[in-house]
C-alpha cells in the first residue's frame, strides 16, 4: 500500500492511573503515577445515560471527549471509528449466564449494550452526530487495524476522523480465557496532512513483527494486560515529539508508524 500521511489534532487517554495525555507525558518524564480513579467522567453523556452505560462505554466516551476537546473540532460533523478487541466482556458474561439459566429474564438494556458498536451509538446519539461511524474488531491488532481504517478514511475523504480504541476488564470464564484485567482506552483525532511544513505521522503496512522504543515498565505491563494499550508506543512518540514503531495491524502484517517533525 502507499504511505498515508496524517496529522494528529487531538489525543485522549484513560486508565485508572493515567487519566489523560498530560499524565503520560509526566510518566515518561519520570514522575510517579497519580492515585487511581474509579470511573471515567464521560461527561459528554447525560446523567441518566451515564447511569445505565457500562464501563466499556464510559471509557470510550471519556477518551473521545478528551481528543475532540484538544482538536477543537465540531463533534456533530466528525466521522468516527471505534475499535475494541474484546467488546464489553462483563455484559457478554451476563448474557451467557442468563441465557443458559432463564432466557426470558434477559434485560433489554443489557442486551443493547452488548453489541460491538454500542460505544459508537452512545457517542453519535449524545452528540447528534450524523457523520459516518464504524466499529472494528481485530483481536490484539485492533488498535493498529482501527488506526489504519481511520487514516484511510481521513485521506480518502479529505476529512478529520475520530479514532477510539478501548477495552475493559473481563469477568467469569470469558475473563479468565482472555486475560484482560484492567480498563484502558485511547483516542486520536486525525486528518490528512498535505502541508510539508506541518509535523505529521506516516503509516505503511509492512511484513514485520511489532516493535517499539523502550517504555516504562508500567506501560509494558498495561500492554500485556489490555490489547487496547497497544497504542502506547505511538502515544509515547507523540509525547516525545518523534520516533517510529511497528504496531500489529493483522495476524501477519504490521503498521509502520513514523513521526516526521518539521524543523
Topology diagram in text:
Elements: E1 4-14, H1 21-28, H2 47-52, H3 55-71, E2 79-83, H4 89-101, H5 108-112, H6 118-126, E3 133-136, H7 142-157, E4 161-167, H8 172-178, E5 184-192, E6 200-206, H9 217-225, H10 232-240, E7 243-248, E8 254-260
Parallel strand pairs: 2-3, 2-4
Antiparallel strand pairs: 1-5, 1-6, 4-5, 6-8, 7-8
Explain what you see.
Helix 1 crosses helix 10 (232-240), helix 3 (55-71) packs across helix 6 (118-126) and helix 4 (89-101) crosses helix 8 (172-178). By secondary structure, the protein is α+β, with helices and mostly antiparallel strands. It contains ten helices and eight strands. Strands 3-2-4-5-1-6-8-7 form an eight-stranded mixed β-sheet, sandwiched between helices.
State the name of the first-level CATH class. Alpha Beta
Low-confidence stretches: none
Task: Determine the structural class based on helices, strands and strand pairing.
Answer: alpha+beta
Strand order of the largest sheet: 3-2-4-5-1-6-8-7
Largest sheet: 8 strands, mixed
Name the helicity range. Answer: 25-40%
| CATH topology group | Peroxisomal Thiolase, Chain A, domain 1
Strand fraction band?
Answer: 15-25%
On the 0 to 100 scale, the average pLDDT is 93
Q: What is the count of helical runs?
A: 10
Using only C-alpha atoms, the radius of gyration works out to 18 Å
Amino acid at each position: 500500500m502507499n504511505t498515508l500521511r496524517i496529522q494528529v489534532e487531538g489525543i485522549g487517554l484513560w486508565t485508572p492511573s493515567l487519566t489523560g495525555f498530560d499524565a503520560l507525558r509526566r510518566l515518561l518524564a519520570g514522575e510517579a503515577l497519580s492515585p487511581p480513579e474509579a470511573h471515567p467522567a464521560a461527561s459528554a453523556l447525560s446523567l441518566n445515560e451515564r447511569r445505565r452505560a457500562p464501563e466499556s462505554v464510559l471509557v470510550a466516551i471519556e477518551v473521545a471527549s478528551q481528543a475532540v476537546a484538544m482538536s477543537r473540532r465540531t463533534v456533530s460533523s466528525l466521522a468516527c471509528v471505534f475499535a475494541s478487541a474484546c467488546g464489553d466482556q462483563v455484559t457478554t458474561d451476563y448474557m451467557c449466564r442468563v441465557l443458559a439459566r432463564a432466557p426470558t429474564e434477559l434485560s433489554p438494556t443489557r442486551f443493547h449494550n452488548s453489541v460491538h458498536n454500542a460505544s459508537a451509538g452512545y457517542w453519535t446519539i449524545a452528540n447528534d452526530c450524523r457523520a459516518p461511524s464504524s466499529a472494528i474488531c481485530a483481536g490484539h491488532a485492533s488498535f493498529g487495524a482501527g488506526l489504519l481504517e481511520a487514516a484511510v478514511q481521513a485521506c480518502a475523504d479529505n476529512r478529520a476522523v475520530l479514532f477510539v480504541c478501548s477495552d475493559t476488564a473481563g469477568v467469569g470464564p470469558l475473563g479468565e480465557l482472555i486475560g484482560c484485567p484492567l480498563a484502558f482506552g485511547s483516542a486520536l483525532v486525525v486528518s490528512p496532512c498535505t502541508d510539508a511544513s506541518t509535523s505529521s505521522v506516516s503509516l505503511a503496512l509492512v511484513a514485520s513483527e511489532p516493535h517499539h522504543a523502550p517504555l516504562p515498565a508500567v506501560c509494558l505491563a498495561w500492554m500485556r494486560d489490555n490489547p487496547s494499550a497497544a497504542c502506547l508506543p505511538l502515544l509515547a512518540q507523540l509525547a516525545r515529539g518523534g520516533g517510529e514503531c511497528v504496531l500489529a495491524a493483522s495476524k501477519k502484517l504490521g503498521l509502520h508508524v513514523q513521526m516526521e517533525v518539521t524543523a
